[in-house]
Amino acid sequence: MHPYIHHDSQQYFAFNIWSIESAKAVMDGAAALNSDVILQTSMKAYELLDKKELRAFVSSYADKIGIHAYLHLDHCKRLDFIKEAIHYGWDSVMIDASDLPLNENIRLTRIVCDNAKSRNVLVEAEVGQIAGQEDALSVTTEGIAKIEDVELFLENTSIDMLAVAVGTAHGLYKGTPLLHYDLIDKVVHLSDIPLVIHGGTGLTEETFSHLLSYRNIKKINISTDVKLSYRQGIEESIDNGYLLREGFDPLKIHKKIHDAIMDMTVTKLKILREE
Ligand code: 13P
């Protein structure tokens, strides 16, 4: 099996990045704790990125700072992008066909597995539908995966990681999310497939700890918090006068943004230490 989920006990946060700078800030946070980390690119970010150069940077910089950093393609609906990301050396890819009927989700996931396995690339897929930021969230059961669907999906694909919709959502929570731990219990009972939790931004430390107490949960995704940290860096730069016409200072702005992303990364990765 690929090193990324090789160690039985290893659990990761995966941070969305969109540039070499954001990747570096997350990696510096990971290096501060001597942690390995997953960097992931949304489909939109992936499309805009210089793939070969990002791959080269992540490998070379991880080597320099002495950590493992893995590159993952998040929520991808396009098979051509997945194929290309595999070609460029992404360590794992997510085929997200969760909006399609289950049999179609299975069919597309199998195509991706066929392609990825020969290159030693891990495949993540989604069952159920993880809600987006526009949804009202606190008590929703809509989109929560059905255990029969999970079973059928696992029987018919050879995925390495399962993103199972358990009540978390992407973006900022409007209420307190109701997580369906009963579903996690059932999935864990059914299979030892590594699980991925999406929608990590806004979950409390208690919730993270509860989730991480399931050893099958191997990856928790954080995107909005990376963007909010970027924003915080800009706000602090404004407060410090770095954006004034006189005294405008790109290096100081860059450092504020870098440090905000790095600090957030450290805060999240420390939670893994407490487990
Ligand atoms: P958040 O934006 O809520 O952190 O979700 C991230 C995510 O799950 C990306 O796939």
Strand content: 5-15%
Q: How would the global form be characterised? A: globular
Structural class of the helix and strand makeup? alpha/beta
Any idea what the radius of gyration is? 19 Å
Total number of distinct structural domains: 1
Helices, by number, come to 10
Return residue spans where pLDDT drops below 50 for at least 5 consecutive residues: 134-139
Largest sheet: 8 strands, parallel, barrel
The third-level CATH topology is TIM Barrel
The CATH fourth-level homologous superfamily: Aldolase class I
- Provide the residue-averaged pLDDT: 93
Structural description of this entry:
The chain has 275 residues and is of the alpha/beta class. It is 47% helix and 15% strand. It has an eight-stranded parallel beta barrel, surrounded by seven helices. Helix 1 runs parallel beside helix 3, helix 1 (20-32) packs across helix 10 (250-274) and helix 4 (79-88) packs parallel to helix 5 (102-117). The chain has one domain: Aldolase class I (TIM Barrel), CATH 3.20.20. The chain contains ten helices and eight strands. The model is unreliable at 134-139 (pLDDT under 50). The structure holds 1,3-dihydroxyacetonephosphate.
